[in-house]
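note to self — DONT lose this again. spent like an hour looking for the file last time. sequence + predicted structure for the chain T wanted, 299 res
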Amino acid sequence: MLKNLLSLFRSLVGGTHARRTVIVVDRGTAKPSREYTFRPRHLRIVLIGVLLTYTVVVAAVAPLTPLRALIPGYLTPEMLQNTRMIALRMASLEDSLAAHEMYLSNLRLILTGELDSTLAASVISNTADNPTDTVLPEPQNWQDHVHPALPITVMPANMTAPQLSPPALLRNLESLQLPALAPVDGFVTHGFDARTGHFAIDIATEAGTMVRCIGDGYVVFADWTYTGGHTIIVQHANGFLSVYKHNEQLLKQVADRVSVREGLAISGNSGEFTTGPHLHFELWNNGLAQDPGAYLLGL
């Protein structure tokens, strides 16, 4: 049936411009047959006109129905408003991201020793893990970091965050509760020594041990460093910064919010300056290195 209809349609609209005659016969009745004469070109014009009219009507009516959402490029007032809001949020996010990248860039420079400042001493601490007997030059500002650089007894409760602290992130953080539980179970193999540039304690522990955060904060660095291996740094309230190095695997990313005793990494032996599985832990406050041993329990 369909094949016959297609063949009839081609016969009516195709071919030459000669006239066509269609004879309509009602079978089973006594009605006389009817004849219709036309040119194929005229029939094609009529069909094209009908299609164009249908298209125009649909295009005019569709915006008034829910089908308008299916029209490519058509935006409802709600969609326009959402688009404007998304654009504003993207602009705000770009500004925040630029400021955050600048903050992290400065922090990387400080932690890798490329920035000459009192904070740059954190990189020197890595060399203390070097198995060689190389004598390191005495840091010029080592006296500033001799414990207690900022003892707990004289720390005001409302101490403001340092310049490196992003206020928007730290606004809702609880103060760091000290003394805190140690980030890993183990024993100290190398203590804090500002004179030799070891601004940390090394805690020997089995590889694969969970490294836990000492307090609420935000991850401001989580990446590989040449000397410290897989390193993660957490910014806390009141100007505190905790650093965890030589991990086998990091469990958090930059900008993640973490809670006290939440897992940050899996301990290991990564990095160039290490003699075995251990955690190199640093604690800073307002740009001054603190002796972590005086602030941690269970060591």
